[in-house]
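seq as requested:
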Amino acid sequence: MGSEGRTLRMGSDRLVEYRFGAFTLDGAGRRLLRNGEEIPLRPKSLDVLRYLVEHPGQVISRVRLLRAAWPGVVVSDDSVTQCLVEIRRALDDHDHTLIRTLPKRGYMLDLPVSIESCERRVGPTRLEASRKRIFSKRPPSRWTVAALVVLALCIVATWWRAGIPP
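struct tokens:
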């Protein structure tokens, strides 16, 4: 089974998660956790990190990372660079000791990685995730507010024309 961006399955009901240092890469939910708290990463950055975590201690060329994270797609080398910047920021690897850059050769995750099996349902279900998005604490957009104001004015105008007091 290839390892480019896939979660390894152990048995039919088991998934694996990768533990390295204080971090866990949750294979089922595609999340990076530090001591149980989620660290937000873009999907492609997670793909690059997963590939590095699946190959700890190995020098991974930029071309291999491009093929793993963007299979069949032509992107610039800057895409890998941006992902690595985001990953290093998430791992607090400002001195480049966790993910080492080996000039003219590639990159290497310089941490031991343990692979542990976990239950299939690690994160919220799709329904729970959609409810979380629906009931977010983000304020409504201007368009939503404008539409509600227009709707309220239409209702008042309809009542006024019908002779119903508001």
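The chain has two domains: 9-135, 139-166.
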